[in-house]
Amino acid sequence: MKCYLDGYRFDGGKLSLTGWAVPETGNARLSYAVRVNGRELPVATVLLRRRPDISTEYLSDPYREDAAFFMEFSYEGREKAVLVVTEEENGAVKERREIPVSLPALKKRQSLRALKKRLNGPLAFAGKVKNKLLHTEAKAYHEWFLRQEENGESPSVPASDPEHPLFSIVVPVYRTPVRVLNELADSVFRQTFPEYELILANASTDDEELEKALKSLSERDRRVKVLPLSENGGIARNTNEAASSAKGVFLCFLDHDDLLSPGALKAFSEAYALHPDADVLYSDEDKVTDDSSLYYDPNFKPDFDPVLLSVSQYVCHFTAVRRSLFTEAGGLSPAYDGAQDHDLLLRLSERTDRFFHVPKVLYHWRSTPDSTASGREKKTYAENAGCRAVNAHFKRLDLPLSVTEGPQEGRYVLCEQLVNKPPVSVLIANRDHASDLKRIVTALFETATYRNLEVLILENGSREEETFALYEALKKEHPSVRVLTMPGDPFNYAKLHNDAVGEAKGEYLLLLNNDTDVLTPGFLEHMVAVSEIPDVGAVGAKLLYPDRTVQHAGIVTGEGGIAFHPFKGLREDEPGYMCRAVTPMTVSAVTGACLLIRKADYEAVGGMDEQLAVALNDVDLCFKLREKGRRVVIDTEAKLFHLESRSRGMEETKEKFLRYCAELQYFGEKWKGSGLFPDPYYPGVFSLLYGYEIKRG
Question: Tell me, what's the pLDDT at 153?
Fold first, then answer.
């Protein structure tokens, strides 16, 4: 049994608790009681509701209705109370868990959680360094990978099956150690899919030992073709030479010192059978030590994301490109040697969006002293070439963007080059909290640098004189500020914005919470520039707590209503998994606390769903955009502070708990079977409870 207290509220001799619990198996049931000094207290309320993230993680059932609990009971706070959770199956008690719920204990626990959040970044970083030094992370992944390989074994595909394509594996060979070459060839010969040819373009014909090894390989298997090159023309030209003699439907790119998993081509063949219109196939990958004794540093990738591709060559290995499209695009460009594959993928993405991700680790990047897998010092020339390739891509698409080399290897910093600044209407819902509102409105005009904007304050039931005095002062000081008086109770965030949109004059709408503050002066210019990327429908900002740890850097979603922030608690510039916490990319959803959307797109999808009065209306809006083929992007270069839920409070009362659970259930049912799950931008190997950690078990 797993159980946890999320929070509490003590008010007038009544204590309410919120938390979650799941039994060991799906058939078992849980019961709850509270004891003080051995006597059971009468519990006024026990409400059980859905928590899809919890029940998915532990029971693989997002629709289980009893994972979250809310309890209310009379309590004076003077004695130590104990929450008793009992697990029963077939009438027998399997386990009983006791959790202290006295106020001092809870306060201490919540203080520790707050401290942990503040220290999470530094501690996480220190832990990662220690883990790398001790190889504990690498060993854990190595064992996990071997289990996957063992469990994933399948029969070989019969030869000459007309339904399967021929794959041409092209390898530019130059000064390759014979041992390494033979190991590469062996990994190809072990493929469970036989329809391939291996083309080895040798640019070091003066190496007699290597020549002899290549001849031996061609004699060993008729599918091996050795192509001698008169000179070393560089990796792009050498690869193009190999591709020119290929006969396959797809070209597969394999570096001369790397390895394939035995099922690599079979997995690609199966993907092609499902997507016969595919132009590009790519897989997950990892690294392997030179002696092949340890697999480590896995790169689990999202589905195709042109935004992420523009700032990071995340597709990388193993990649298969339709040969006809490769030829049409002009092959690899020698001008970008070192980043020739990134340049190719960018040019291909301008011609097709039929990229398909095969979510399996099929490629092992060998780490040797001379390989780019071994460290950033080997990548400098490649990063420079990559920047040039991306900037050429932006120029071809006429986008107001550029990139520069970044502090983390493998990613570039996205910069805006916005010249024309379209009008933006900033919508801020407000009920009192005058000091918060004054701070953000002042920041928009004095800290932020975007000038072509209007600010619409959506007045919603304020009662304090200070608030109305502030409205008059803001309108007098800033002529572009307007106050729209909206209906008061019950609070409905979605309806407020739907009603206000008709009054907005801007081409863009910026939904912005009153409990935010500007950190990046040019945040709005950056978000508008990112919105110019083709098919982008909404752009969210990176939001930080006042202690500069992350509150929001994109939302991961899962069936049943799961919506969580995977990078919550990281330091502001902590890169996260594969630098995803600091990299603009496509996500399933972003928070409405700072969300930019074209007014035309907002209206085209019918605005927000007013049945989602408080929770998940922003996620639902993002889903409606995605349903129309629009992308949702998190712009990590646009940063604001966010005092999360300061204005409206957390789900700490029975009414709020019930409302949240009802909205969660409504959202889950609404999008069930929509095809938008699982989250295409969050690899399925990862937990939906613990961000970017491999699922437990």
Answer: 54
| pLDDT of 157 higher than 70 | no
For 25, the enclosing helix (H) or strand (E) is: none
- Beta bridge partner(s), residue 260: 363
Residues 248-257 have pLDDT tens digits of 999 999 999 9
In angstroms, the CA 280 to CA 268 distance is 10
Q: Which of 173, 273, 157, 270 is nearest to 224 (CA)?
A: 173
C-alpha separations of 122 from 116, 405, 409, 515, 641 in Å: 10, 25, 20, 26, 20
Percent of the chain with pLDDT over 70: 89
SS (H, E, C) 593-626: CEEEEEHHHHHHCCCCCCCCCCCCHHHHHHHHHH
User: Residue 515: what are its φ and ψ, rounded to 5°?
Assistant: -100, 40
DSSP code string of 90-112: TTEEEEEEEEE--HHHHHHHHHH
Torsion of CA 154, 155, 156, 161, to 10 degrees: -110
How far lies 233's CA from each of 112, 172, 228, in Å? 60, 10, 12
Residues 6+ apart with CB under 8 A from 472: none
687 within 8 A of 695, measured Cβ to Cβ: yes
Q: Is 449 helix (H, G, I), strand (E, B) or coil?
A: coil
**Distance between CA atoms of 376 and 387, rounded to whole angstroms?**
15
Q: With residue 249 as reference, give the H or E element that holds it.
A: none
Q: Which two tokens stand for residue 135?
A: 């190889």
Determine which of 123-132, 279-288, 479-488 has the lowest per-residue pLDDT on average.
123-132
**Closest by alpha carbon to 492, among 665, 650, 659, 670?**
659
For residues 611 and 613, give the distance between their C-alpha atoms in angstroms, rounded to a whole number.
6
Q: Could you say which DSSP state residue 437 is in?
A: H
d(CA 331, CA 531): 30
Residues 47, 118: Cα–Cα separation, whole Å: 32
d(CA 538, CA 536): 6
Neighbours of 267 (CB within 10 A): 21
pTM score of the predicted model? 0.89
